[in-house]
Amino acid sequence: MPCLAVIITLLAPRLAIVLLWLLTGWFHGVFAGILWPLLGFLFLPTTLLWYSAVHHWFGGHWSLVPLAGLVIAVLIDLSPARGRRQPREG
């Protein structure tokens, strides 16, 4: 079941954020205000999820694994979607 949750999160991170916000207390205490979560939801949703996961799973300590995950999350968020599609011929 956790693997399915990870797959859904990578396919639709904004949906995962909304579900976590509505159904759990996942984001309580992670951010001081509403500005950073809102900006993360709009521009870097995978990074927002990873940042909150570091606070829950690693106690907010930024060591090698959390930093590597942060770099991967930022790359996922900033990668262009057009580069993955094949151009249409004809």
What would you note in describing this structure?
By secondary structure, this protein is mainly α. The protein has one domain. Helices cover 64% and strands 0% of the residues. It contains 5 helices and no strands. Helix 1 packs across helix 2, helix 3 (35-43) crosses helix 4 and helix 4 packs antiparallel against helix 5. The longest helix has 15 residues, at 64-78. The termini are far apart. The model has no long low-confidence stretch (mean pLDDT 86).
Name the descriptors:
mainly alpha; 64% helix
Could you state the order of secondary-structure elements as H and E?
A: HHHHH
Distance between the termini: 43 Å
Shape: globular
Low-confidence sequence ranges: none
Q: Largest beta sheet, briefly?
A: none
In DSSP terms, counting alpha (H) and pi (I) runs of 4 or more, how many helices? 5
Structural domain tally: 1
Task: Kindly estimate the percentage of residues that lie in beta strands according to DSSP.
Answer: under 5%
Q: What structural category arises from helix and sheet content?
A: mainly alpha
Secondary structure tally: strands: 0
Helix content: 55-70%
**Residue-averaged pLDDT, rounded?**
86
Round the Cα radius of gyration to an integer and report it: 15 Å
